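ugh ok fine here u go
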Amino acid sequence: MWYFHVFVDKMKMKWYILVLLCLVEVGVSLSQNCRGEKPRLRDCDNVCDKDGNCKIRAALMLPKNTTYDACLSVVGAVLDLAMQDPVIKNAFPPWLSVEWMKYDVTDCDAAYAVISAIDAY
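structure:
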C-alpha cells in the first residue's frame, strides 16, 4: 500500500514541476528584450573626419522611470551639466568632442543588457 502513496507523491511532484516550468516560460516570453522600441540602426562612421575633428560616442543606458534614483532624466541632466564644466572641457583636446547617446531601458530584461550595449555602439 505504501508503494501506491509513493507513486502518487511522485506524480504530484511531476505535475508541480510541469506547472512551475510553464509559469517560468510564460514569464520569460512576456519580458521585454529592448529591441521592440525603435530601431537603433546607424551607418558606420569614422571616429575622425577629413579635417581631423574626432568624436567619441558613449551610451547612457538607464530606465526613464523616475521611481529609480538613477533614472535617465536625472543622470542625463547631471552628465550634460558636467560636460559643460570648463575643467571637463579642458580635459579633452580641442579637436575631440564627446557625444552622449541616451537610451531608455525601463522594460529590458537583464539578459539583453549586452545586446543593448552592442546596439548602442
